[in-house]
User: Which sequence fits this backbone?
């Protein structure tokens, strides 16, 4: 049976005179673009340009809502209620949808950003708020979330199509969670090993853990990091090696 | 022939802990609500609540986009290009549309705010940018603008339905423009005279000017100011007296 | 022995077109004004006007730094590090100091706002960051904090003069903490009882607790709430009755 | 007679997760740093770090106030009154002064940014507002402005020390103004020619103009651009060649 995987990357996170990421270059390798909506990053000009670029590269478009906190890039935990989270997501997806409309493209998915992503991964009420916002705006949208997270559970319960997100360049712990970034064994820098990790996820449905065991995992989409010096060479190699291994790299909807 | 007029009012301009306006009370008298989209005023919580209230009062809902400048309440002129204006309107209408979707209501119209309204009234390129943004998002939306303005011309050229906005409580100059607020004869405080002004607009298609003449004017909707001590009593009296004069007060779409 | 108490109130929390509080009226009754610095509330125009008004009313001026979060009015917990808190306080006190300079007045004190106040009351590292920022800018400033809090301990350790803040209109629990606002017995609406509570604090160094006991408390300054319908009549009565009880109402520095 | 020139550069314009400029590298070549104050760019963490770096490199520190508009990087014209400009400068200089205090350094100068710089160069009232704000906060501060501008006239009138800013890499028009950037002959890319231009300013008090004439100009400080691919190599060469030409490169206060 043919194995398929999506490669998703955060995009459109520049802001005014400030540039972050190498969107145009990354769009040559990824299959799904998570586009910031002007709350944790991005602005109307950046959103417009990023959608146009994604369309030109035939990359699937998703909304990437985050906490309204450009100064903190949406990475700081802020004490929002589930109702506030629901409403900020409605607001953000709506604004990106309008750009999709004027560019004549469909929005495929939604992936929350940073602190919102982490909160929705472990907190039931936040997960439910995110999933309901997506469902209420457009029940056809695919909800991206951490494999095994509360967010995916909440999405499935509402009948949303969900995509389990995994990491090729991060190690996993015995309980299936990611090894925290501070730890020396958190990152995988060897592209060969990263590809093996993805192959094992797809073929065996498991991932090796840092303590030598393995744990079940679903893998629909790989999170590609757009920052870092080697971001572009990493994703180019990763994609090439996945395809060499017979894995079809394509967006969720294809 | 039955004369009809719409009463529109800016709404949803509170922000976080800050309250402006008496939205709930005003919704009892007006027929169209122009709802701020979080750029010059408003936030997702306020947008959500205002749409719910407008729906409950059966008042038509419109987007009220403005310059992204909460500190200046969208009243300060900022040097934006027409392209930037186009994109900020796409962003803002989109976010309000999403709240309409989750509340199961239709958006009826768009009326720009403050400095954006004034710029689009007199500047061809800005007017064209506003009108195109509205058209590209949803060609069924009604575009509200100052009677006789560049904005309405731009909207008509694209095939949009437009609504000519007039003022019951402001005087007009010989060229059809509003007497600037600083002038002693700018405001009409007498409700009887305000109603007469509206009647004359509807029956004769003209408005008396401060120099004693009269000038042609179209009148589809009256701008109701929500602030000021007497805002609510003014609109209540105005509506009652318009109805007594046999003028049907109803939203544009009815 | 003469008992003295300071009455402090948050001020200058309006923002652009948005007005909060009745600063001018309250300045007739309070002795210390905590002036927002443009981060959780306020802006340069509001800061300037509030300092001018406080000077005219001969009310002592303090900085009221808060989390940089106007949308949340500084009330939301945001995950800032102690170093970030130190720097935001330096920034905010500095900006208010400059307005003091151009108005020819001295800054007397610093009182943190909202979530920052609560965090610094219970968290040692945050308390230390706040106290160090105040000390490093001007070791003569008086640090206001919740009576019995970590913040006052941190201030004293650095050699700062501190002022213990108490509440006339809130009840206390057995451990000396305030009864949470959600509880039915949290508020004291009877001004007579509020004055008795303050008298007992000053004369006996204790406060009655909701469970019928009493607990030690120091009282240098009373927090006056500027919002609420009865804010002004409450502070007017409170001040009159304190003075009738022979308590001198004056600012900390007097 | 020994000729002296200052090299000044905008710094501290990063913001949160967004980085702009190569501050640390540029500090090796310039003699005055204009540090953003969190309004058009910068934040408390960036201000703190930039002052520490400038101190380590023994570079003179100045405030770089701008319009409060991070989304537009302070480059967009916004319709502020002179009073508003006065207050935003008080606020911004004050906040930077506090960081100077905690780092134990003196602030040397103030140079307005972007749209504020351009407005104060040609508009008398804006120039007066900027100069008064600087004077009222600290009459010892040096005011940097475009050579021949209204801003320097306003500063001199108040008794401030002013520094005439010139450009090594820009051409001048017959009236002494800079050739607009859009023009093909606006920029000087040849470092030799740039140094000749500066030498002529210092030795003869004139600058050649694009139409072949020359015009009087005072030159106290050269504006170094921190962005652009060749920013660092340009300033390194410029400084080396100025020193080779016998010109002392040192800050205004030295």
Assistant:
């Amino acid at each position: 049976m043919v194995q398929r995987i999506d490669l998703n990357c955060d995009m459109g996170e520049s802001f005014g005179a400030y540039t972050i990421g190498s969107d145009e270059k990354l769009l040559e390798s990824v299959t799904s673009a998570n586009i910031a909506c002007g709350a944790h990053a991005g602005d109307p000009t950046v959103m417009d340009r990023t959608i146009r670029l994604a369309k030109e590269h035939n990359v699937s478009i998703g909304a990437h809502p985050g906490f309204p906190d450009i100064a903190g890039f949406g990475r700081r935990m802020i004490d929002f209620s589930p109702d506030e989270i629901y409403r900020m997501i409605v607001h953000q997806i709506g604004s990106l949808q309008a750009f999709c409309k004027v560019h004549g493209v469909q929005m495929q998915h939604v992936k929350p950003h940073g602190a919102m992503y982490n909160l929705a991964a472990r907190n039931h009420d936040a997960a439910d708020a995110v999933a309901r916002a997506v469902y209420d705006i457009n029940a056809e949208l695919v909800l991206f979330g951490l494999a095994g997270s509360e967010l995916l559970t909440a999405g499935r319960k509402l009948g949303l199509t969900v995509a389990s997100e995994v990491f090729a360049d991060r190690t996993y712990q015995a309980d299936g969670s990611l090894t925290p970034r501070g730890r020396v064994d958190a990152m995988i820098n060897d592209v060969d090993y990263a590809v093996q990790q993805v192959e094992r996820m797809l073929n065996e449905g498991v991932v090796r853990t840092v303590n030598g065991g393995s744990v079940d995992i679903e893998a629909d989409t790989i999170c590609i990091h757009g920052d870092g010096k080697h971001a572009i060479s990493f994703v180019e190699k990763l994609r090439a090696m996945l395809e060499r291994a017979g894995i079809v790299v394509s967006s969720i909807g294809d």
